[in-house]
Write a structure and sequence with these properties.
single chain, alpha+beta, five-stranded mixed β-sheet, 14 helices
Amino acid sequence: MNFRVTAAGLSILVSVLLAPQASAVDLPAVKVSSSNKVLSCVTPGRLMAFLKTRNDKLDARFSEIASDYMRYGEELNMRWDYAFFQMLLETGNLKFGGDVKPAQNNFAGLGATGNGERGESFKDVPTGVRAHLEHLIMYTGEKVANPVAERTRKVQEWGVLTEWQKTLKGPLTFAQLAKKWAPPARKYALEIEQVAENFADGPCKASDPQPELVAAVRAGKSGAKDAAKAVPAPDVAAAPVTDVATPGIELAKRANDDARAEGTGKRSALGAGGVAKAAAADAKAAQAKAGDRKAGDRKAGDDKAKPYALLNAPKPELDPAVTAKPAEAAMPSVTKVAAGSAAKGAKPVAVACKVFQASYGGAKTVIIKAVANDVTQYTVLDVNEGSEAREADAYIAAYAPGGKQVGEFKTQNMALDKAFELCPEG
């Protein structure tokens, strides 16, 4: 695509002032950190289930797009969950309908500036996803080397965002990004928040319908076929637990950045050409839900008043006598990480080891090793700080007789990596 920008036009781009949002919106920073992580309930399987509730005629071309967001998001160290939510907003849940067409694989309207300008096209879905994520990273001030999108390269070369980035204090949040990305769309950040909360109220609380996709992404695989090869079907008879609903949303609080760039002006056209029509319903629901909510109105512990980005996970309290009566302990949420559901009527595939995931709702993670029916089982168990040993013992007594703890980790991802190192075949 050829770019022709006059000095006056470039000046307008550089000096765009930002329209204030309709209400204060709490969205996380674009880049991950120790206090700003992708939620443990966010998986490709749950995201695809969520997408299909919003688009029941989803093009098969996009059947693995959530895995692409996870793969490249983790590589770029960013909140790819919110990038996915923004993509749903920008594309109308992948229904498109505006200037950008599905075949372009342009999931953020890069270069689509309106009046029929379709913007850039990318060779396939994964490339389009990476282009979106790189464009977001560019807004943080981080230099993107050899970006996929021509739009990203040009904006970096022109220094369009340089002066605006100097006004930011602290890590760039999605709320701040929204003001620059779509200045006239005063409810843009609120719309992203509403999409996120809809996910939190639904799939985030349910079992992962395709837990094998996480393992496939972490193993460097792509596609459902690779996922199936990397993750054998479970030996149902030998499985010590069954899938149950996740008891609440596990989230880490982040510091609320008060610095907001405000003002008025026209859309900078650095990102998408327009907000998808399907966002109107989300915006209407979000506005009704927000009411007169203000950032300072929330009281500590008032989870009902907190948006998706600030919720705290409920932490089940175990009976003081849990070590003596482990069966009476609060039941953890359990997900089969390394294996999907066996096909109906199909014979179980015999494997030497399996990996499972379970949770008592805590932020720390341990690995439990046990043997059942000649199969070594590694369970990645989320536990509460201060109760690690008690909860691990309770899980072993109730679900993994004869098992033992073989490691303790600061994050779930570290534990999963170790589990699949111990059990490569999953």
